Amino acid sequence: MATFVDRVVLHATGGDGGHGCASIHREKFKPLAGPDGGNGGNGGSVVLEVDPQVTTLLEFHHLPHRHAPSGTQGMGDHRSGSLGADLVLGVPDGTVVKSPTGEVLADLVGPGARYVVAAGGRGGLGNAALASPRRKAPGFALLGEPGDSADVVLELKTIADVALVGYPSAGKSSLVAAMSAARPKIADYPFTTLVPNLGVVQAGSSRYTVADVPGLIPGASEGKGLGLEFLRHVERCAVLVHVLDCATLEPDRDPLTDLAVIEAELAAYSGDLGIEGGRIPLGERPRVVVLNKVDVPEARDLAELVRPDLEARGLQVFEVSTASHEGLRALSFALAGIVEQARRDAPAPAPTRVVLRPRAVDEAGFTVTRREGGGSVWFEVRGEKPERWVRQTDFSNDEAVGYLADRLARLGVEELLFKRGAVAGDEVRIGSDQNAVVFDWEPTLQAGAELLGQRGTDLRLEDRSRPTRGEKRAEFKERMDAKAAARAELWTERESGVWTDPE
């Protein structure tokens, strides 16, 4: 029998985008017929999809690391790279996707429900796509972007209409076997049931599912026994059925005490109220009490003794025997009525809407922040476009670096650096601290394709012996000192009367 796994950690990585191609078309009598480099293919994404044939997360337990295929590089003659196929992973119905911090990212309910865990990287543009009237034959292409990487927690919350809860060996598995065609393992020792069992019950024209949750004990909501691991399987249920053992031989147990203990554990358990079917707290859901094993004479006497107290609390009480099937028909029809009422009261599913959120007119799309630390000062540039452009740039190609400078200047990064107080030689970092591109800012750097040299070069970057930041600061200070000295000399001449009116 396959092992039941209902909680795993999945490490997903999207495929990398293929690099663009820098190629020039050549044929007889046309040695330079223009750029013809194709675009790189997009990388595949890691997608979770509900598959009715999958009932456990065991596959992800053995193979937790999944990587989608990458796109291939573009080629000459306008040939684009192939796309990386999406890696579609089948998950059971009712799987909840969470972040490592516990935030619910997706609730996958219903066949075909999908969620993209890690998106694939975008393919780089070839030089044919980068050509323009001013840059007619680019000698570079954009690099493909790496795919996203994410760690998510997958939790299976069983989709059932009725949940059977109670102490170990209270007869929950026997009740499921007696009411449905399910055949769980049944034995006369505690914790026989180690995994939830599902059964389908037909009561007249109504059909509903019953889940047998492994036995709860005091402290289950705090991690004792098996309860904490399987209490999540009752979160979607419309009705809770307390199965109380009236034939227990333990001296400190009785149906009323068992009911109080299980109710306390359900109240102490905090589930995910944002999931489908989990909007109502467990303490507010309909309850039914089943006094089991009444085929034993002493158990029948005890059931008749505690029944008035339970009914006084407003609970529906049924005396049943899974051995003789006594009371099972009335119980099945009563549960069918509660389930049907819950289905009628459930809110209609809201239609899926496409929400458009256009960017504000005055929104730059990036930020420039002055940072200090470790005795140094730098300016941090963050934003989707600048960071993506940096990832796409081949820094071994001077023309590609110049193209990046032109794009940043058109976006307004240089202007905002001026407003934040940046001067020549200041350190600028684009991206996060862990993976930032660092360079010394050149505010006087001219932009424009008219400064291009041969393909793959940029006249603005030809001077390899660029002064250091300290040398630039010293030069700037010398200029300021020279200006101050000139102003002082002119003021002295004016005070001494050198500047006089001829009249």
From TrEMBL:
Please name the GO terms that the record assigns under molecular function.
GTP binding; GTPase activity; magnesium ion binding
According to its UniProt record, the EC number is: 3.6.5.-
Q: Record's GO cellular component, any one?
A: cytoplasm
Intracellular or extracellular location(s)? Cytoplasm
Cofactor dependence is on:
Mg(2+)
Chain positions recorded as Mg(2+) binding sites: S173, T193
Source superkingdom: Bacteria
Q: Which Gene3D superfamilies match?
A: GTP-binding protein OBG, C-terminal domain, GTP1/OBG domain, P-loop containing nucleotide triphosphate hydrolases
| Coiled coil start-end | none
Q: Which Pfam families does the UniProt entry name for this protein?
A: DUF1967, GTP1_OBG, MMR_HSR1
Q: Where does GTP bind?
A: 166-173, 191-195, 212-215, 292-295, 321-323
Domain named OBG-type G is located at: 160-340
Q: Is Nucleotide-binding one of the keywords UniProt gives this record?
A: yes
**Segments traversing the membrane:** none
Q: Which SUPFAM superfamilies match?
A: Obg GTP-binding protein C-terminal domain, Obg GTP-binding protein N-terminal domain, P-loop containing nucleoside triphosphate hydrolases
**One GO BP annotation here?**
ribosome biogenesis
Q: Where is the OCT domain?
A: 358-443
Could you tell me which residue ranges the Obg domain spans?
2-159
How this chain assembles, per its entry, is:
Monomer.
Q: What does this protein do?
A: An essential GTPase which binds GTP, GDP and possibly (p)ppGpp with moderate affinity, with high nucleotide exchange rates and a fairly low GTP hydrolysis rate. Plays a role in control of the cell cycle, stress response, ribosome biogenesis and in those bacteria that undergo differentiation, in morphogenesis control.
Query: Could you tell me what this protein is called?
Result: GTPase Obg
Q: From which organism does this entry originate?
A: Cellulomonas marina
Q: What gene does this protein come from?
A: obg
